[in-house]
Amino acid sequence: MNFPKREEYNNFFATYINHLPAANPLELLEKTQEYSLAILQNIPQELWNYRYEEGKWTVKELVMHLIDCEQILAYRALRFARGDFESALSFDEDAYAQATNLEAVSPSYLIKSTELLRQFTLHRFSGFTTAEQLQGGSEAFPTSVRAVAAIIAGHQLHHIYVLQERYLKQTVQKFEL
């Protein structure tokens, strides 16, 4: 799978794709997951319910956001690959975060969910044909299937950088292949 061309996604998603080197999106999905898990698995237990500022997500909510978005984006890619461009099925990420009660959910559950979902995402995207990878999206979500794979990887990196910087108070270790 080739890295998407600039015309395959809109400006909103450029923020995420710009975090990535121009490489095979499947490899990016795999490697960004390894990078992210190394950080998630080392978060101290007492920080998982921490908010760095009033009104911001907890670490658990941030990780659940990554899970929710990956599922939604992968579903969009499936619809586009099958020629269904009817709707991008938008969602309100803040409403999703508020709808979950993660106080009692264990960090290990969230990490395992992240791992399993990425395995399925990789499996799903590796099965798309070259023609399906180039299928475009809807007017509301103008992107190709292969761009969605890159968006998922870049979105994860974006939030892991925020996690490092604002929650863990660490210097961000930039992702490299």
UniProtKB/TrEMBL annotation:
Gene3D superfamilies per the UniProt record, alphabetical: dinb family like domain (1.20.120.450)
UniProt domain DinB-like: residue ranges: 29-160
Name of a matching Pfam family: DinB_2
InterPro entries listed in its UniProt record: DinB-like (IPR024775), DinB/YfiT-like (IPR034660)
Name of the molecule in the record: DinB family protein
Origin species: Aureispira anguillae
High-level lineage: Bacteria, Pseudomonadati, Bacteroidota, Saprospiria, Saprospirales
